[in-house]
Design brief:
heterotrimer, A alpha+beta (180), B mainly alpha (298), C alpha/beta (740), A: 180 residues, alpha+beta, Alpha-Beta Plaits, three-stranded mixed β-sheet, two-stranded antiparallel sheet, 22% helix, 24% strand, B: 298 residues, mainly alpha, Formate dehydrogenase/DMSO reductase fold, 0% strand
Chain lengths: 180, 298, 740
């Protein structure tokens, strides 16, 4: 079975929010329910400034802290390794939100349940396609989605070429990799 | 993006009340051992314990909105025994049962079996430690993610539990209050231990690899929460009670110590401990900053 | 496109818990070249609810990118950028996804409104609205002539046709675009030099491109972002001249943090270097241009050291940039910009635009690969006079063409029109798709000017600040609910695109702009020019270029004209009075300007001693002027990241004791208001950058209302001499920490 992962090249990210809004529209999320969080970093002193936009989203950790702490089993790791939230089991205690070191989980203000990036799980599962909405929407192709276990996949090759790494070295075992 | 604390006042109340309840039962057990004659105070502890924990649990359920909208989902709470919260549910449930039985027996003037008291005290301890572990396992927040926090919460829980029992005793049964010297001396020590634990917690947190730890500590000691931390927690909650009790226990004449005026000073000190206990939990919740939200690590 | 469409289509279906049929993938064969509409029957056979697709054009900004909408049960599931659309290239920006919400916004205008004596809007019927408006129109014409009527509109495919036709039919030439508040100075300046209002930089193939005040990453057109990225990845030298280090820096090599308003001095300084060192394309200039010698002589004093004193850019940098340009020429150019730094910003904007074209001429880059191109476009041919009769040309010229002789007649100076309303010359004004009152100039002056009108009619989808001032507000259906006239796009391969109806009207009492202006025309007695439907006109227009409504729809909403494609290296026909590139312009001289561009100081300059900063506006990638601020998905981004903050240089902030996130009082002679500060290294220290999307003062836009400050509250009413631009950045402000 595929082990899905994503690569985000922050050198290509212009911080335009297209991924966020595309994700919201295509996943039918509320305006204040967003799965992608942006950190902006400014480096240097005027006028020699560098700017970096870092989109963060569920890292689909293999040792997901959210799943570990969830008392009801709503937050769980699926058979394909995609970290998911069973909306019908979530009581909204927010323990997973506290436990997620990346702070990329959000509470749905209508249902009170917690949600987060699904790796557009339906796409991957049922249609056999390998894309996420944010990947398709990205104007600069800063994102690649694919099977980390397939050495020939675009993402595996890109990770090898670019030496992409998790956003924080050893916080958890993530499946989202960053070029910085 | 500005970080909004995930949990705030409601959960702070819950953590505080759960700890207090556990502490109150432990206080009763302690009294049974060292001051068996203080039957009213023992009863006070046994009543406070289930009542406060119950209020805490109701608050918790109101905060879990998805569960509140679908109450059946609360039945799922016992499905993941890898979760500290699941263990918390177990401890809280067992503690509720034991403390309610103990309270019922006591209120109906029947003897509470010693094993029940011991079990309740042990569960009270578990509840108190659980409130700390609940936060402690979250790697997200350096302020939580250390072994110091559960111990601090335990000490604070016992301290607030004792303070609650003592404060009610001052109002209802001052004659018993005068005779529980061992409890008072024990209670006196706790804020001092807490001070040491808090200092250690802050030093350790400030020196974790992530700047989030440093920033969290700075928020407390010199930032947004400076007033609440130094005035409400350190002064009102720890130093004040310690100073007042030091004077009452060691420097004032015995006649004064048993006077009504001294009782009210003691009451003020206990109230301070309760305020401090709540503020401690609130501050720990709201001042904790996540490792991936403060930029420099990026 | 087709395969992509279908795979995503598959996702949408699977989202409803339906298995995707492999047969559907086989249906990819139906795809056309430009984009493919999924046959609704196919979707139905698939087992899901009927999903229909429609190709249309986005309306979240002026780029009008093509997209495919997937509609299920009458609601839009999603939209995907059309691969075949030259601007979309298969992508949409955040606004493109977010702006869909306008159709179902709770703040839509749903019925015609009339302001009563108490100043409160009351619903009225369309017939009554038309009748009353027509009566007032006729009264104005009778008393003051049709010249006392004016129209302001932000061009959209149907709107630009119908509004002009309507006004011309009434006998008025006063049809203004938003241009004076956008790109009038730039286009007018260009026209004086190269005889046309625009060109496009061949960024992707360039060796060097300089952007002045323009950021592809903050005012997104997907194809432009892609071109910039390509250039960067190819190793082209990309230079950003901007008082703010904008987000295009991701694909740029250098940020040149110029003092705002001084781009002209930079251009003159760089030109000085090219001319005095003989680094310019002398042969090209000699062959194609007139007046070079006069300008060259005037450049003698414009040394880099002189320019440094004005621009704040080191002389060495100016020299280096000029030399780098010379090395890269002719595969190099200064990008034409849009609104940016000289579309309408300063009293020297038109002259800056001229200098840009002259600098490009020195590079000899016109129509060269990697240079600055004049790409062809295709336009509508002659229509059947019987069905679509030509409207007689109005007797009078557009008001302002004498006062601002360099302004372009197809744009006009809308602020001059406002001034004429203020002085009582213009008595009746119509607004279509234009929020003049909030975005074109000083808001207090505009409110006063427009309140003096005898008749003010606003056609819009939501209660804009301009609509608030109106006597009549006519509700339009949203861009998703209407067919519009074909939109012709120039480019390397010119094409035509179509905004088509995607969903049924959400509010039955809303009407499309073609209906509104046709019906208004009939009420006003000039209905004979509107005796056709938009379908008929669109079809007729397309037939003049060998297409039809049906074939364009079948082609996926975009059809290209490869026969008319651009070729590198061809010398264009210069449509100037001199028939050549004009280093000197008689028209400019006649307008009281120098015949060749010389340094013109902006009307106001910040003063360090007085603690004043120049207020500079600008765009953010998720917003389009004030138009998108009420979109919940988009405004939430602003709220999440405090994007309504003003940017203050870290150095200045430190001196003034202001910390990041502090609330400050921004004030000047026009206005004052509180807002929070972003303290940053990314802004020139003489500048206060204020995103120009916020400060909505219309309570009926509930999402946008009260968030942030409105730039135009602070900008004094001023019109650029000669050109007629609004001088959007001729404002100085002071900043003080609240409570300090």
């Amino acid at each position: 079975m595929a082990r899905y992962g994503m690569l985000i090249d922050t050198k290509k990210c212009i911080g335009c929010y297209a991924c966020r809004v595309a994700c919201q529209r295509l996943n039918d999320l509320l305006p204040d329910e967003n799965f992608i969080r942006f950190e902006e970093r400014e480096e240097g002193v005027y006028p020699s400034v560098a700017v970096e936009h870092v989109p963060l989203q569920c890292m689909h950790c293999e040792d997901a802290p959210c799943a570990a702490v969830c008392p009801t089993g709503a937050a769980h790791i699926g058979a394909d390794g995609i970290v998911a939230v069973d909306q019908g089991r979530c009581i909204g205690c927010l323990y997973c939100m506290a436990a997620c070191p990346y702070q990329v989980r959000v509470r749905n203000s209508e249902t009170g349940a917690v949600d987060k990036c699904r790796f557009c799980v339906v796409t991957a599962h049922e249609s056999g396609t390998q894309t996420c909405n944010c990947v398709d929407a990205c104007l600069t192709d800063a994102r690649i989605f694919g099977d980390l276990d397939d050495p020939g996949s675009e993402i595996s090759r890109a990770i090898a070429e670019t030496h992409a790494v998790p956003i924080v070295a050893d916080l958890t075992k993530t499946k989202v990799f960053y070029v910085r | 993006m500005t970080f909004e604390p995930i949990w705030d006042v409601i959960i702070a109340c819950y953590l505080f009340l759960a700890g207090l309840g556990g502490g109150a039962f432990i206080t009763s057990a302690f009294l049974r051992w060292r001051h068996p004659e203080a039957v009213n105070m023992i009863r006070i502890g046994r009543v406070i314990a289930p009542v406060t924990v119950m209020i805490g649990l109701v608050l918790l359920m109101f905060d879990a909105t998805a569960g509140l909208q679908n109450p059946l989902r609360f039945a799922l709470l016992l499905t993941n025994f890898g979760s500290v919260m699941t263990w918390g549910v177990v401890f809280l449930g067992a503690f509720m049962v034991v403390s309610l039985v103990a309270a019922a027996l006591d209120l109906t003037h029947r003897r509470v079996p010693l094993p029940l008291d011991l079990a309740g005290a042990a569960l009270g301890l578990c509840v108190a430690v659980y409130t700390g572990c609940l936060l402690g396992v979250c790697k997200t927040f350096p302020l939580w993610n250390n072994a110091m926090l559960p111990i601090l919460f335990l000490v604070s829980a016992v301290s607030t539990g004792m303070a609650a029992v003592l404060a009610v005793a001052i109002i209802k049964h001052p004659e018993e209050f005068n005779r529980v010297g061992v409890l008072k001396k024990f209670h006196f020590c706790l804020p001092i231990i807490e001070l040491v634990l808090v200092a250690s917690l802050l030093f350790i947190t400030a020196n974790t690899a992530s700047v989030a730890g440093w920033n969290s500590v700075m928020q407390l000691v010199a930032g947004d929460y400076v007033l609440a931390f130094w005035f409400l927690f350190v002064l009102v909650g720890l130093v004040g009670p310690t100073a007042l009790e030091t004077w009452l226990l060691f420097f004032s004449p015995r006649e004064f110590e048993e006077s009504r005026r001294a009782h009210w000073i003691s009451f003020a000190s206990d109230a301070g401990v309760l305020v401090g206990g709540f503020v401690l939990r609130l501050l720990v919740l709201v001042a904790a900053l996540p490792v991936t939200m403060t930029v420099p690590w990026l | 496109m087709s395969e992509k469409t279908l795979t995503r289509r598959t996702f949408l279906e699977a989202g409803a818990g339906l298995a995707a049929g492999a047969a559907v993938l086989g249906a990819a064969g139906v795809a056309g070249t430009a984009g493919a509409a999924l046959d609704p029957q196919v979707a139905h056979a698939w087992g899901g609810p009927v999903v229909t697709t429609a190709h249309s054009l986005c309306n979240a900004c002026s780029s009008k990118c093509g997209f495919t909408a997937y509609v299920r049960n009458g609601e839009i599931d999603t939209v995907l950028g059309d691969e075949g659309h030259p601007y979309a290239k298969g992508k949409l920006c955040a606004r493109g996804y977010g702006y869909l919400q306008i159709a179902t916004s709770e703040d839509r205008l749903t019925e015609p409104l009339k302001k009563n004596d108490k100043g409160v809007f009351e619903p009225i019927s369309w017939d009554q609205a038309y009748a009353e408006i027509a009566e007032k129109v006729q009264a104005i014409i009778a008393a003051d002539g049709p010249e006392a009527l004016a129209m302001v509109q932000d061009p959209r495919p149907s709107g630009k046709y119908y509004t002009k036709r309507f006004m011309n039919a009434l006998g008025s030439a006063n049809v203004y675009t938003h241009g004076a508040a956008c790109n009038l100075s730039k286009e007018a300046g260009f026209t004086q030099v190269i005889g046309t209002g625009n060109y496009s930089s061949d960024v992707a193939s360039s060796k060097m491109t300089m952007f002045i005040g323009r950021s592809y990453a903050d005012a997104i057109r997907p194809s432009s972002v892609s071109a910039l990225q390509k250039a960067h990845e190819r190793g082209a030298r990309i230079v950003l001249v901007d008082p703010r280090c904008n987000n295009s820096i991701a694909f740029a090599d250098e940020w040149v943090p110029i003092n705002p308003g001084t781009d002209l001095a930079l251009l003159l300084g760089m030109s000085h270097v090219l001319v005095t060192r003989g680094l310019y394309d002398a042969a090209y200039v000699a062959e194609n241009a007139v007046g070079f010698e006069e300008w060259a002589a005037s450049l003698a004093t414009c040394t880099p050291a002189w320019a440094e004193g004005i621009t704040g850019i080191p002389a060495a940098t100016i020299e280096r940039l000029a030399v780098e340009f010379a090395d890269a020429a002719p595969a190099a150019s200064i990008e034409p910009s849009w609104r940016g730094a000289f579309g309408c910003a300063y009293e020297n904007s038109g002259e800056t635009a001229r200098a840009v074209c002259l600098f490009n001429t020195l590079l000899g880059c016109w129509n060269q690969k990697g240079g600055a191109l004049f790409t062809p476009s295709v336009s509508v041919g002659k229509l059947d006079e019987a069905k679509f009769p030509s409207v007689p040309k109005p007797a009078a010229k557009i008001l302002g063409s004498e006062e601002y002789p360099l302004s372009l007649s197809n744009m006009g100076s809308n602020v001059y029109a406002a001034q004429m309303a203020h002085s009582g010359v213009i008595k009746g004004m119509f607004f279509y798709n234009s929020n003049m009152a909030a975005g074109y100039s000083n808001t207090a002056f505009l409110a006063e000017a427009l309140s003096r009108l005898d008749l003010m009619v606003v056609v819009d989808v939501q209660m804009s600040e301009t609509a608030q001032l109106a006597d009549y507000v006519l509700p339009e259906c949203s861009y998703l609910e209407r067919l519009e006239l074909p939109e012709f796009i120039g480019g390397k391969v010119p094409c035509v695109t179509l905004r088509d109806k995607v969903i049924e009207r959400v509010h039955p009492e809303t009407r499309s702009c073609d209906e509104i202006f046709s019906e208004l025309a009939r009420a006003c007695g000039v209905g004979e020019y509107f005796d056709f439907t938009v379908e008929e006109l669109a079809d007729a227009q397309l037939k003049t270029v060998g297409l039809s409504l049906e074939t364009l729809r079948e082609a996926g909403g975009t059809a290209s004209f490869p026969d008319a494609a651009f070729e590198y290296g061809k010398t264009p026909k210069w449509k100037t009075p001199a028939g050549k590139i004009q280093f000197t312009s008689e028209a400019c001289a006649a307008a009281g300007l120098s015949p060749y561009p010389v340094w013109v100081e902006p009307a106001v300059m910040p003063d360090e001693a007085a603690g004043t900063l120049r207020l500079v506006g600008g765009k953010q990638a998720h917003m389009s002027h004030t138009q998108t601020a009420n979109i919940a998905d988009l405004m939430q981004i602003t709220k999440d990241y405090d994007l309504d903050r003003v940017w203050l240089s870290a150095d200045v902030a430190q001196r003034w004791g202001i910390a990041d996130g502090d609330e400050v009082l921004v004030s000047n002679e026009c206005h004052e208001g509180r807002v929070r500060v972003k303290v940053t290294q990314r802004v020139n220290p003489t500048t206060l950058f204020m995103p120009s999307h916020y400060g909505c003062s219309s309570p009926e836009q509930r999402t946008a209302y009260g968030v942030g400050l409105c730039q135009m509250d602070f900008v004094p009413f001023r019109i650029e001499p000669g050109y007629g631009g609004i001088c959007s950045q001729e404002a100085l402000v002071t900043v003080k920490k609240v409570g300090a």
